[in-house]
Description:
64% of the residues lie in helices and 0% in strands. The chain is mostly helical. The site of fe (ii) ion has 6 residues, from helix 3 and helix 4.
Amino acid sequence: xxxxxxxxxxxxxxxIPEIDDQHRELFQLAATFRGHGDEIRVMKALAILCDYAxxxxxxxxxxxxxxxxxxxxxxxxAHSDFRRMLRHLLQDARSLTLDQVADRVEALIxxxxxxxxxxxxxxxxxxxxxxxAYQARPREIRPLGRAKPILPATDQTPE
Length: 159
Ligand SMILES: [Fe+2]
């Protein structure tokens, strides 16, 4: 895993608001851990962060299923890894100092999650864009075929 940490920036937006907004919100939540707060506030913030992350992962998985993304299983596996790391952080948090919790949150969101966005999420985004474009396409108006006569044609003309 790449251990570099990165801040959210517009450069990691995909132009898909429902995904970009959730990504940005997770970074905003993660940014509240550093330098202030008491244990109760930090534990609450951690629970909110983990819940929000789970909702985001579920929404992404639903979106990938809806568009028929072929690599969904590998992506789901990456999400499962992330859920497991979040669970471990929640379990460990009570025995950590607040600075250690902030370090772990930073490693998860600004490290792991950032890399996931720029390397793994980006792989399914072109399909979302294509799917949305297809959904938004103007419905063509098909010309009506020549109407079939109700009665069989006859070459006998009335006298
Ligand atoms: Fe993802």
